[in-house]
Amino acid sequence: MSSGLDAPASASTEPPAASVEGSASPVAGSTAPSGAPPSQARLALRSAGRSLAATAASAGAALRRAGAAVADAASPVTSVVSPAGRLVLAASVVALSLAWLLGWIELAFVGATLLAAVLVAVPFAFGRMRYEVRIELQPRRVVAGERALGRLVVRNAGEAAAVPSQLELPVGRGLAEFVVPSIPVGGEHEELFAVPTRRRAVIVAGPAVSVRGDQLGLLRREIRWTEPVELFVHPVTARLKPSAAGLVRDLEGDVTRTITDNDISFHALRAYEPGDALRNVHWRTSARTGQLMVRQYEETRRSQLLLVQATASEHYASEDEFELAVSVLASIGVQVVRDATRLEAAAGDRRLGTATPTALLDATSRIASLDGSAVPMRDVVREASRRAGAPSVVVVVGGSRAPLAEFRAVETVFGSDTQLIALRAEVGASSRITRLGGSTIATVGALEELPRLVRRIRP
Fold first, then answer.
1. How far is CA 414 from CA 286, 403, 408, in A?
2. How far is the C-alpha of 150 from the C-alpha of 446, rounded, in Å?
3. Which residues span the membrane (predicted)?
4. What pLDDT, on a 0 to 100 scale, did the predictor assign at position 302?
5. Do 407 and 438 form a contact (C-beta atoms < 8 A)?
6. Is 178 helix (H, G, I), strand (E, B) or coil?
7. pLDDT per residue over 313-322, tens digit each?
8. Could you tell me if 365 and 200 are in contact, meaning their C-beta atoms sit under 8 angstroms apart?
9. How far is CA 56 from CA 51, 60, 68, 78, 445, in A?
């Protein structure tokens, strides 16, 4: 009987197979469903990672700000150390570090010697100077090749005698160095220097800087005393006759084919249209015809000259040829300004001042050739004409390597009332004038021949 009761009891303790297979409990080796939400641990890790990243970014920004503040605070000291001094300090640190790591007394001696050299240089950088410095250029404007002198005046404005020092003065691409001796209170010391003016340019003299430091150049303390001063080296120009016949003549009053309602050259009568000014009504003809008639006029030309130089280096065979082109531009422009003819001038994309001959010459001193892809002359002229309106004469200056098609393309920018004159600079070539379509092409071989060419040109 006991066996009959035990069998059902043991069977009831084993769960059915179906209940085991249908259980939702995970089995070892199985993966979680792909659509299951992330666990709390993963969310916590992500939040911690974002918090650490934000903290690191904030700490990095704070370190950068602190580093910038330290660099600004230390700049009065670090700026005194020259590149050679930084190299010596770095070599000293390396030598002393290796000596400590390797135990080499020789490296320790080298590091100590280099460090001592920097320390010995420190007293040479000290010293207070109270100077008043002036840079005088005489004259401020010269023609290329003329002599120009400069004068550097140093005055002791302190309350004690000034110790000897050294002044450096950049002049163009060069650097002039002057030794200033001990100057008593209120005393002055002057130095004269020559300015190279062989070629056209704007030469900058200054700023004058006093230098204190050691003879090895490890420490270098600079004090700036003046602002830069400019010397204008004008291009060589040829004198043209005032109101010369040709491209610089006054075209005021020449009649054009443009019809207008307000001018001085009477053209014809036409029927009145709403909006016409009553002052143009011809009353006698209106009474005879029984219809209001108004006057029409032919527009008279206002003399306006557009002077443009191409600055692309590929248009010129040499630097001398480019300088000849600048001289041609300056010669014509100066005479046009003197003749009180309205002028708009440009060199490449640079607009040139034309208020006075001096302003124009100052502007031509800054003209420089441009390397790289050349801007078509047509585009250069079009851009310049937008500022001045339709000119009566356009003068384009270029080099011997500029294609003739470039000059002819300028004709398409303006109408038939605008005359085009192209001047090609070609050093050593025979000067001549040719006609190409509606344009006049003049070759200038030397600046001395420009006045004769100008007299022969008829726009």
1. 38, 20, 11
2. 32
3. 84-102, 108-126
4. 53
5. no
6. strand
7. 899 999 999 9
8. yes
9. 9, 6, 18, 29, 71
pLDDT tens-digit profile of 39-95?
A: 777 777 888 888 888 888 888 888 888 877 776 665 666 777 888 888 999 999 999
What would the DSSP string read from start to end of 282-314? Answer: -HHHHHHHTS-EEEEEEEEPPPEEEEEE--BGG
Show the tokens assigned to 316. Answer: 């010129």
Which residue type occupies 353?
Answer: G
Alpha helices in 79-209 (DSSP H): 83-102, 105-125
CA distance 79 to 20: 82
Helix (H) or strand (E) holding 239: none
323 confidence band (pLDDT: 50, 70, 90): very high
**Burial classification of residue 233, based on how many CB atoms lie within 10 Å of its CB (0-12 exposed, 13-18 middle, 19 or more buried):** buried
SS3 373: coil
Residue 425: strand pairing partners = 399, 444
In the structure encoding, which two tokens stand for residue 115, read together?
């460090």
Query: CB of 450 within 8 A of CB of 328?
Result: yes
- Measure the CA–CA gap between 145 and 148, rounded to whole angstroms: 9
Q: Can you give the pLDDT at residue 140? A: 92
CB-CB neighbours of 94 under 10 Å:
14
Query: Is the Cβ–Cβ distance between 188 and 151 less than 8 Å?
Result: no
412-448 confidence digits (pLDDT tens) = 888 777 888 999 999 999 989 988 877 889 999 999 9
Question: What 3-state class would DSSP assign to 139?
Answer: coil
Q: Is the pLDDT of residue 366 over 50?
A: yes
User: Do you know the residue count of the chain?
Assistant: 459
Q: What is the DSSP string of 77-95?
A: HHTTB-HHHHHHHHHHHHH
Reported as a pLDDT band with limits 50, 70 and 90, residue 216 is confident
Distance CA 141, CA 446 (A): 24
CB atoms within 10 A of CB 267: 15
Tokens 């900058």 belong to residue: 204
The C-alpha atoms of residue 127 and residue 244 are separated, in whole angstroms, by 65
Residue pair 328/426 in contact by the 8 Å Cβ criterion: no
* pTM of the predicted protein model: 0.67
